[in-house]
Amino acid sequence: MSFDTISDRGLVILGCGRMGGAILQGLLKGGLSASSVWVVDPHPSDWLNGVGVHLNSELPENPAVVLVAVKPQMMAGALPQLSAMAQGDTLFVTVAAGITIEGYETMLGAQTRLVRAMPNTPAAIGRGVTAIVGNPNATADDLDTAEALMGAVGQVVRLDNEGQMDAVIGVSGSGPAYVFHLIEVMAAAGVAEGLDPDLAMRLAKATVGGAGQLAEESDESPSKLRENVTSPGGTTAAALEVLMDPETGMPPLMRKAVAANIARNRELGK
């Protein structure tokens, strides 16, 4: 399936909040015609009016793709209206957390062609990373289509199996929140040492943003980059001795945080 097929048969977006809207904007910027997009959202954002998409209007009978972007708790009420589409060759791509492939197949039917995708919030600025995995009915072309769709908002990786999705959610799906909290606590530490709050926040944001981009673009590993900054017996080494403590530092805290994330995600999926 190609974007030509999407242009011919249409893309339906179920729920166009922050993530669905980011994906739509990325697709439109990438050249997808607004006239080939149908959006179903009871409370659409103002920017959707006048963009040229079909907003809350009659849907095509056999669209190429349905992008499911509603909240998990709304899924049971929203999906049945599209179940007829799952009987044909429409590809369903979902970006909702917590619901398994089996759950979607229960709501839509075992014959559904489905790709489960997990993006993160930097998708809003085209810097997201999305993990995708298909059900047994999804073809190689379906995975290519899902990758092209999600590629509109950043990088895409393919998983070997759905069992890896919990860890993806724990690391990259929720990961931006961990980084935002790091910015908060770095700025607060600067204020505690006498910096103006605005200056401390500016320094923390720029430091985390710059370091992240350097880690992505450098050929050196994060470990090597860390070592490059750390002089033996110096100030950075003193700080890292605290942060890297195997009992009280960041390694055990991050393991506990990701494990708690995964446990909660599995509870929500039941």
TrEMBL record:
<dbReference type="Pfam" id="PF03807">
    <property type="entry name" value="F420_oxidored"/>
</dbReference>
<feature type="binding site">
    <location>
        <position position="56"/>
    </location>
    <ligand>
        <name>NADPH</name>
    </ligand>
</feature>
<feature type="domain" description="Pyrroline-5-carboxylate reductase dimerisation">
    <location>
        <begin position="162"/>
        <end position="268"/>
    </location>
</feature>
<dbReference type="InterPro" id="IPR028939">
    <property type="entry name" value="P5C_Rdtase_cat_N"/>
</dbReference>
<keyword id="KW-0641">Proline biosynthesis</keyword>
<comment type="function">
    <text>Catalyzes the reduction of 1-pyrroline-5-carboxylate (PCA) to L-proline.</text>
</comment>
<feature type="binding site">
    <location>
        <begin position="69"/>
        <end position="72"/>
    </location>
    <ligand>
        <name>NADP(+)</name>
    </ligand>
</feature>
<dbReference type="InterPro" id="IPR008927">
    <property type="entry name" value="6-PGluconate_DH-like_C_sf"/>
</dbReference>
<keyword id="KW-0028">Amino-acid biosynthesis</keyword>
<dbReference type="InterPro" id="IPR029036">
    <property type="entry name" value="P5CR_dimer"/>
</dbReference>
<keyword id="KW-0963">Cytoplasm</keyword>
<keyword id="KW-0560">Oxidoreductase</keyword>
<feature type="binding site">
    <location>
        <begin position="14"/>
        <end position="19"/>
    </location>
    <ligand>
        <name>NADP(+)</name>
    </ligand>
</feature>
<protein>
    <recommendedName>
        <fullName>Pyrroline-5-carboxylate reductase</fullName>
        <ecNumber>1.5.1.2</ecNumber>
    </recommendedName>
</protein>
<keyword id="KW-0521">NADP</keyword>
<comment type="pathway">
    <text>Amino-acid biosynthesis; L-proline biosynthesis; L-proline from L-glutamate 5-semialdehyde: step 1/1.</text>
</comment>
<feature type="region of interest" description="Disordered">
    <location>
        <begin position="212"/>
        <end position="235"/>
    </location>
</feature>
<dbReference type="InterPro" id="IPR036291">
    <property type="entry name" value="NAD(P)-bd_dom_sf"/>
</dbReference>
<feature type="domain" description="Pyrroline-5-carboxylate reductase catalytic N-terminal">
    <location>
        <begin position="12"/>
        <end position="98"/>
    </location>
</feature>
<dbReference type="InterPro" id="IPR000304">
    <property type="entry name" value="Pyrroline-COOH_reductase"/>
</dbReference>
<dbReference type="Pfam" id="PF14748">
    <property type="entry name" value="P5CR_dimer"/>
</dbReference>
<comment type="similarity">
    <text>Belongs to the pyrroline-5-carboxylate reductase family.</text>
</comment>
<dbReference type="GO" id="GO:0055129">
    <property type="term" value="P:L-proline biosynthetic process"/>
</dbReference>
<dbReference type="GO" id="GO:0004735">
    <property type="term" value="F:pyrroline-5-carboxylate reductase activity"/>
</dbReference>
<dbReference type="GO" id="GO:0005737">
    <property type="term" value="C:cytoplasm"/>
</dbReference>
